[in-house]
Amino acid sequence: MIALAALAVVAVALSAAAVLASRSVTAEPAATTPSDTTQTAPQTSGEPADPSAPATTEPGTTEPVQETSTPAGGAGVVVVIGDSHSVGDPASTWVGTAAAELGWGEVVNLASPGRGYVATPRSCDFDPCAPFPGSVPAIVEAGPDVVVTFGGTADGDYGLAEPAEAYFAALREALPDAQLVAIAPVTTEDTAEYWLTMHAQTIGAAVEAVGGTMVDAGQPGIGDGDSLSAEAQAEIAAAVVAELS
């Protein structure tokens, strides 16, 4: 009996030990691993941003780059060739105002009283003393960036198609990179003759055919007498500046 009782006690003890071992195993937390779909925040170095470094923007939001350019009309050497409307102190003619407004550098004034596309000047301060087509060598010698031709009034009622075309074609051939500008003829008489309008159209077609620019200031000098008034000169200057700016 004693032996059976001892065996029973041993069996109970073993059963209790087994239960305790089972409880200790299930009590331990299971190890976990991050899910494959878990998103992590981007890492930073923790260093302060460099204030001198350029700011970055998202694609498509880049600020436009500001561009700078030289004002239109700015030039180193400008040759002005014309009749008496362009002769005199630059400060009292359209030449001085246009030069200041457009940033012209050196201005070489080859204007002479009575010069035209076919009309020979009454007097000259330089050679050759010739109409515009015959003055091309003198213009080219100055090495201009811009050539402004202002005339046609002295030519009277005479067709200017051929001489104007020959003149501007010769200028373009000799000065392929220069800016060529023509100003329509202006009168100081009491009325503007019909042929002045014809001259303006002919001259404009000739200069534009070689990539030049035509400036038509209208007839601001009507009734001024022998020379253009200060007001008329100012209107011509304004037209030149507006067209070339």
Give the oligomeric state of the chains in this entry, treating copies of one chain as homo and distinct chains as hetero.
single chain
Mean pLDDT: 79
CATH class of the domain at 80-244: Alpha Beta
Measured distance between first and last alpha carbons = 129 Å
List SSEs in N-to-C order.
Answer: HEHEHEHEHEH
Structural class: alpha/beta
Largest sheet: 5 strands, parallel
Please state roughly what percent of the residues sit in beta strands, choosing from under 5%, 5-15%, 15-25%, 25-35%, 35-45% or over 45%: 5-15%
Radius of gyration: 45 Å
Give the fraction of residues assigned to helices.
25-40%
Explain this structure to me?
The chain is α/β, with parallel strands linked by helices. The protein has a domain at 80-244: 3-Layer(aba) Sandwich (Rossmann fold). The protein is built from six helices and five strands; from the N terminus they run H-E-H-E-H-E-H-E-H-E-H. The chain has helices at residues 2-26, 94-102, 136-141, 161-174, 194-208, 230-244; strands spanning 75-82, 104-109, 146-150, 179-183, 213-215. The protein has a five-stranded parallel sheet, sandwiched between helices. Helix 2 packs parallel to helix 6. The protein is globular and about 40 Å long. Residues 24-72 are annotated as: Disordered.
